[in-house]
Design goal:
Layout: E1 21-24, H1 30-41, E2 51-55, H2 66-76, E3 83-85, H3 97-107, E4 112-121, E5 128-133, E6 152-160, H4 165-170, H5 174-197, H6 201-215
Parallel strand pairs: 2-3, 2-4, 4-6
Antiparallel strand pairs: 1-5, 5-6
Helix pairs in contact: 1-5, 2-5, 5-6
Length: 216
């Protein structure tokens, strides 16, 4: 996986904290933009708050498998500085969500939680990745009343909303979900590199350039 540097945006594109950021998974340098967006929302390393990603969903529904796929891909990239919960072999879904979140809060002191989930949206928004302040609200697209999760959220629009949402999620193309999951996981991994180097800007830049050279 190549860490990217794009002079069009600079190393750190200026995102406003808690703004809703929308990035298409096919956009040029989408992985870097995801990393920058996450990096801009996370607390300083001086706060010593553990960074926890809660990847919500189930592999029993293609569209709803985005979260577990991201969790699995990130676990394969360890070691890194973030804590990952939710994967294909240990999913976090409607039946265990409350218990899993309670356990996470027992495992970590004052964690900063990023909730990840698939969602439905307008046709022209399919493939968009959204990052912003406030929790993710799993199940809202299919009228489920589940606990909101996260200090910030990351959601991927995998299909069209408005009609027979369960059926739509179950019949979402796996190829799209997998491509979005890989882009998001790579972006999160790049954010972890930056977070480990924070607040040392030169160290992060050097790390990115070295990895880029090694993968060329």
């Amino acid at each position: 996986m190549k860490c990217l540097f794009n002079s069009k945006y600079g190393l750190f594109h200026k995102f406003i904290k808690n703004e809703e950021i929308r990035i298409h998974h096919h956009e040029q340098d989408a992985e870097l933009l995801i990393a920058q967006a996450l990096f801009s929302q996370m607390p300083s390393t001086l706060s010593r708050r553990p960074i926890v990603f809660v990847c919500i969903g189930t592999d029993r529904s293609t569209g709803d498998s985005l979260g577990p796929l991201i969790g699995t891909l990130l676990k394969d990239k360890e070691p890194h500085s973030f804590h990952i919960y939710g994967s294909l072999d240990d999913p976090i879904h409607a039946l265990n969500l409350a218990d899993k979140v309670a356990q996470i809060k027992k495992n970590h002191v004052n964690p900063f939680i990023i909730g990840i989930d698939a969602c439905l949206g307008r046709l022209k928004s399919v493939g968009i990745i959204q990052i912003g302040g406030g929790p993710v609200k799993p199940g809202s697209g299919v009228n489920k009343d589940l606990p909101a999760v996260g200090d910030i959220h990351l959601t991927g629009i995998v299909n069209v909303s408005g009609f027979m949402e369960y059926f739509v999620l179950q019949n979402t193309r796996l190829y799209l979900v997998m491509e979005m999951a890989k882009t998001i996981a790579n972006g999160i991994y790049q954010a972890s590199i930056g977070y480990e180097a924070k607040p040392s800007f030169p160290s992060y830049k050097q790390t990115l350039n070295q990895e880029s050279e090694n993968t060329n």
